[in-house]
Protein 1
Amino acid sequence: MKKIVEFAFTAIILAMLLSCGVSQRGVKDSRTGRVGIRDTASVKDSTEYELIVFDPGFEFWLNSRSFTKNQYTNEYLQTINHQYVQEWNRRYSSGDRRIESYIDYSPLTKYDFEFNYRLFMYFRYFEESNKIALIPGSRRRF
């Protein structure tokens, strides 16, 4: 049964990669799971981004906290995510064992609020679950 589930999951991922010229850019962390960033072209030639988190603990963590989305602006989230991504990629380049993949996040791309919010929350989840602060000097309580 486990092999059938793994095969089905692999087939779904492969289908997503091959369908409609979709390109996949992803992030993987072996300890806490994986995060995927997928961009898909719509009919209007605009690009839509979707954040897929494969770590089942993330959704539970996000739903069990009382975060208020309207306390953030999209511009703030984009700025802070850029800082998080820079630190994430720096740690990846330096060989941090907790971070096994590179994130391709451009500060020039206008990601929508939902995407930026979920990415920001994933970084907070990663910090809390690993008891580290990704952004140096940040005062997070764990």
Protein 2
Amino acid sequence: MNAIATAWRNLIARIRDPYRPERHYMRGPGPKWHAKHAVQVTAAG
């Protein structure tokens, strides 16, 4: 019974874990990348 209770608590803890790594380090290119890959806009005509 103790093993079942422990497994249940671990499952609940994993589901309720507020840590979401994609919010911290998977945001996309930063300002240096944008500066380096800036699109040159030219006036037509």
